[in-house]
Design a protein that fits this description.
The chain is mainly alpha-helical. The protein is built from 5 helices and 2 strands. It is 59% helix and 7% strand.
């Protein structure tokens, strides 16, 4: 198997799904820098970061980027829930409109300030 940004993002999302099978895992608080966050939020945030930045890397290097539908949907939900705070913190740019019927990954990208149609 070739290690690509898509493979890394899907592997991270699968790890989140495996961890969800044990509810005790999600009851824990985990350290993120100097803050503590719920384990579920931390895992979802990290997996979503891999999806978004995997797309960045793939696009910047001219590679095709795909991720599993469940991975894209998890990322869409996370970015949708955190987009306002992310913009306030300077993590996300201004939202790029993509349309309500766009695929979940494109919606997540648009909400994070990325144009899903961008090419180098």
């Amino acid at each position: 198997m070739r290690l690509t940004p898509s493979v890394l993002a899907d592997a991270a999302a699968e790890a989140v799904n495996i961890a969800r099978a044990d509810p005790v895992v999600w009851e824990r608080m985990v350290g993120m820098g100097s803050a503590e966050m719920p384990a579920a939020m931390t895992a979802t945030m990290l997996a979503s970061d891999l999806v978004i930045h995997g797309w960045d890397l793939a696009r910047a290097t001219g590679q095709e980027y795909r991720c599993l539908d469940d991975t894209a949907e998890m990322t869409r939900r996370f970015v949708e829930d955190s987009s306002e705070q992310g913009r306030d913190m300077g993590i996300y740019g201004a939202a790029v409109p993509v349309g309500e019927q766009a695929p979940a990954l494109d919606i997540a990208l648009g909400l994070s300030g990325r144009d899903p149609g961008w090419k180098p």
